Amino acid sequence: MIMSATLAAGLAAVAPVAEGGDGFEPPSLADFFPQAFLFAGTPFAVNRIMMVRLIMTAVLVLFFGLGAARARVVPGRFQNVCEMLIDFARVNIAEEIIGKRRAQPYVPIITTIFLGVLFLNISGVIPGLNIAATSVIGMPIIFAVVAYIAFFYAGIKNHGVGGFLRSSVLPSGVPKVLWILIIPIEFLSNLIMRPVTLTIRLLANMVSGHFLLALCYAATSALFFTAAGALKGLGVVTFGVALAFVLFEVFVASLQAYIFALLTAVYIESSINTH
């Protein structure tokens, strides 16, 4: 049902272009920089991407708010789903990587990152939204900065500023003659590149996913509405490919949320247990 509605919404979005006689209209970077329709020209401008972010944030809060309000000793299906998502982040990510005792202070932030990235990613396959809220660099940067702050906080809390920085740039057991090589490499790897790679990994996956889905929608619409003769039959093929990519994009959205939260836990664990 959801997949069919997603495909229908995608086709509806590109059908007017095809019917207008221009034929195939591929997706472009302009999809990620739409015009503001509220508060244009101010720091609070709201465009399509920002609206999707606001909607999915509200959905996330409402989803777990209802789950908490309807919590029972014997949970129902909805409560089970809420608890499953939270337990997955707590047990399979935080406690599995950091350790059950040491993970407790960091469970809320890891869970928030996992659920936040998941809900903002999944908007790419929701009818009417059809674009991931993390497909513009702002949100990936925010999540990466939060993970980076947690990484620094855990290290400084357990080892102090000096001990944390030393362990981050100078692994134990390295001969002094190699310090001049190891320190710059470790500094870039551990203190500079981690938030950068977190941001780029999430952004690149969501952007590429949008392009693939939009390309399938555009091709299907063009073949159905403008192609002649037997070529219209190819629209069935591209429609099937679009359906497959919807499923694949749901998988990628979930996987990227898991990877982002997992790497956050790994970074926190590495700052707690110095090497």
Topology:
Elements: H1 2-22, H2 48-69, H3 77-98, H4 100-103, H5 107-122, H6 138-169, H7 179-225, H8 234-272
How would you describe this protein?
This protein is an all-alpha fold and 275 residues long. The model is unreliable at 13-21 (pLDDT under 50). Helix 1 (2-22) packs across helix 7 (179-225), helix 1 (2-22) crosses helix 8 (234-272) and helix 7 (179-225) packs antiparallel against helix 8. It has helices spanning 2-22, 48-69, 77-98, 100-103, 107-122, 138-169, 179-225, 234-272. The chain has one domain.
Keywords:
mainly alpha, 8 helices, 74% helix, 0% strand, single chain, 275 residues
User: Main beta sheet: strand number and arrangement?
Assistant: none
Element order: H for helix, E for strand:
HHHHHHHH
Oligomer class: single chain
Low-pLDDT segments, ≥5 res: 13-21
DSSP strand count: 0
Spatial separation of the terminal alpha carbons: 50 Å
> In what range is the share of β-strand residues?
under 5%
Q: Shape from CA axes?
A: globular
Brief write-up:
With 275 residues, the chain is mainly alpha-helical. Helix content is 74%, strand content 0%.
